[in-house]
Specification:
The complex is a heterodimer of chains A (92) and B (484).
Chain A lengths: L2 E4 L23 E6 L5 H14 L3 E6 L9 H10 L2 E5 L3
Chain B lengths: L14 E6 L4 H16 L2 E5 L12 E2 L4 H5 L4 E2 L1 E6 L2 E7 L1 E2 H8 L11 E2 L2 E2 L8 H9 L7 E4 L5 H7 L13 H8 L9 E5 L4 E4 H11 L6 H11 L6 H6 L5 E7 L2 H4 L14 H16 L21 E4 L10 H4 L8 E7 L2 E5 L6 H12 L11 E7 L1 H9 L4 H10 L2 E3 H4 L18 E3 L6 E5 L7 E9 L8 E4 L3
Helix pairs in contact in B: 4-6, 6-7, 7-8, 7-11, 8-11, 13-15
Classes of the chains: A alpha/beta (92), B alpha+beta (484).
Chain lengths: 92, 484
């Protein structure tokens, strides 16, 4: 059963977390490609990298140790620090 | 999600109503009488636990305890006479004369003892009462509900949404907030103040939510409410206290017998950790300012350094062993009243003098340390709380110095010749402008030293809590009554 807490704020803003604004173009931005370590995810990301590079984006590649667990905090921090945008490959 | 509406009270049927539970020995004792009563007039029996109880009587099962809750059944058995839907009288437990009078059966239970106390109603069982209150009264709370998904950790959710001060908080569930609200007679919807910087009206309910998060007990709530009233006004100026780059926050000094009733600590480690009331009342006030008022570090709170007391700084005066009248009495209140005095202050600093045995010596020591508040060459700009420890207070008490005398003596020692504090004097650029250098200026304005007696019984120490810009352009100490 869902649990509810009472909002302690003045209720001037919505309580759902808001998405960051989407960039309207990628050239000049740094795009992180996160390989979650599923087989052949690298094939997909190699192609994405080619296309993003041709659009003028700087691509950085990252890899989770295993797809079975969330990305380690250091890796998340590194991506958040170095990238403007991140694309995660979920496919088999 | 909005709150469910409060549930309506199920009506009591006319005639006689008896509420019982099987596990109560007194209920079992009176059970055989119910058939007799039912034969004489209309009787409705409600059983709280076993639907088959009492044997031989057709009882209604108050399975969700709705009837018991709404009709304030605190003891079983309870016997009520109802006419036209209105309760005329009730008796609780077994008191033979009451049962005979209310039923009109003169010899009812003649073989039973004259009286036997009843048992607690399931509707006031400590294990159930919070959830019953939420079920039957939760709709009275108007705050927006935040859904916690099954995979969410409620603590992480509160952190991620910026609703804490960086320390864990108690999750404000409906059950906990309703329990907190039992600490005040005020209605949850009452508006207590308008909280800067966002100038949002804060209700008793919102204060209760933040008090739950801070870790308060219900009996602390009136103190939190009074402190919110005291900080949210032009005199105290919490907006300025937040926005200043100086390190101050609301310091709350509590006075009155209620400080002892709620278990506050005015003795050993009075300004430190370890006492729930001291630690959580001030924290609740800061959470209200943060969450309701929107005053967050890095936002409107622009303190260059801040101080650890900004997580909450609240302590009571030790009135019982004080040689003096209390701070609250000096500010026009009665010693029997409960009050909070709020002061825009920094963290406390210790004053050591282990050798002074004469009051003049000690006053001179205290004054020379008070002179350094914020800068030894700056006059009149800041107030201070002087927390005099019991061992220092004794030196004054033995000499017969009362509160006014101590403060007067301190002021005498805090007159600063302009030549000493003019800009450049002593190799320090800070100081007063050249054109004031002929004057003698006071370190503090006449009511700028707030004397408080508190601390452990061993240690020839006092503590000073420096203030912020005082007066009209800054903050004035404000005292408010704590009311139930």
């Amino acid at each position: 059963m869902a649990k509810y807490l009472l909002d302690p704020t003045g209720e001037r803003t919505v309580i759902e977390r808001q998405l960051l604004a989407r960039p309207d173009r990628l050239d000049g931005l740094t795009v992180g490609l996160l390989d979650i370590s599923k087989p052949r995810g690298d094939v997909f990301l190699n192609r994405i990298e080619e296309r993003l590079t041709s659009l003028g984006a700087n691509v950085k590649r990252y890899r989770k140790p295993t797809f079975t667990k969330p990305a380690p905090v250091d890796l998340r921090h590194e991506i958040a620090t170095n990238c403007n945008v991140v694309i995660e490959a979920l496919a088999d | 999600m909005r709150a469910k509406p409060a549930t309506a009270a199920p009506p009591l049927p006319d005639g006689l109503v008896v509420v019982v539970k099987e596990e109560c020995e007194t209920c079992r004792m009176v059970a055989p009488l119910l058939a007799t009563i039912g034969a004489a007039e209309t009787l409705t029996v409600y059983t709280q636990d076993d639907p088959e109880f009492p044997a031989g009587v057709s009882a209604l099962h108050d399975a969700d305890l709705s009837l018991s809750w709404h009709h304030d059944i605190e003891t079983v058995p309870t016997l009520i006479r109802v006419e036209n839907g209105e309760e005329l009288e009730r008796t609780i437990g077994w008191l033979r004369s009451d049962w005979q009078r209310i039923t009109g059966i003169a010899d009812l239970g003649a073989e039973l003892p004259v009286m036997r106390p009843g048992c607690g109603s399931l509707s006031v069982d400590p294990d159930r009462v919070d959830s019953l209150r939420a079920r039957f009264s939760g709709g009275t709370l108007l705050s927006r509900r935040i859904e916690v998904a099954d995979l969410d950790d409620e603590m992480e959710l509160l952190f991620e949404r910026g609703l804490t001060d960086g320390l864990p908080v108690v999750a404000p569930t409906e059950e906990r907030v309703l329990r907190m609200l039992t600490g005040t007679t005020r209605s949850p919807g009452d508006v207590v103040a308008v909280v800067p910087p966002d100038l949002v009206e804060v209700t008793v309910e919102k204060i209760a939510i933040n008090a739950v998060m801070a870790g308060c007990k219900a009996e602390y709530l009136p103190w939190v409410i009074a402190a919110i009233e005291a900080v949210c006004n032009d005199e105290f100026n919490i907006h300025g206290v937040l926005a200043t780059t100086m390190p101050v926050g609301p310091v709350i000094v509590c006075n009155g017998p209620g400080t002892r009733a709620i278990g506050m600590n005015s003795g050993v480690n009075v300004l430190g950790q370890g006492n729930r009331a001291n630690s959580t009342i001030g924290r609740a006030v800061q959470l209200v300012v943060r969450n309701v008022g929107g005053g967050r570090p890095g936002g409107v709170d622009r303190a260059a350094h801040g101080n650890p007391g900004k997580a909450g700084f609240c302590f009571p005066e030790d009135e019982q062993s004080s040689p003096w009248t209390s701070l609250a009495v000096s500010r026009g209140f009665d010693a029997t009243q409960d009050t909070v005095t709020v002061f825009a202050g920094e963290g406390p600093r210790c004053i050591v003098d282990q050798l002074a045995r004469e009051p003049e010596q000690l006053a001179t020591s205290l004054a020379s340390c008070l002179r350094t508040v914020h800068h030894p060459k700056l006059p009149l700009a800041f107030d201070a709380i002087l927390v005099v420890g019991p061992e220092h207070a004794r030196v004054f008490a033995e000499a017969g110095w009362d509160r006014d005398r101590v403060i007067w003596e301190l002021h005498q020692r805090l007159q600063m010749p302009g030549a000493e504090i003019v800009r450049g004097a002593g190799g320090m650029a800070e100081g007063i402008p050249e054109h004031l250098s002929e004057l003698t200026l006071a370190k503090f304005r006449p009511d700028g030293i707030l004397l408080v007696h508190a601390g452990g019984g061993a240690g020839l120490f006092s503590a000073v809590i420096g203030g912020w810009a005082n007066g009209e352009t800054g903050s004035k100490p404000v005292t408010r009554l704590v009311t139930p």
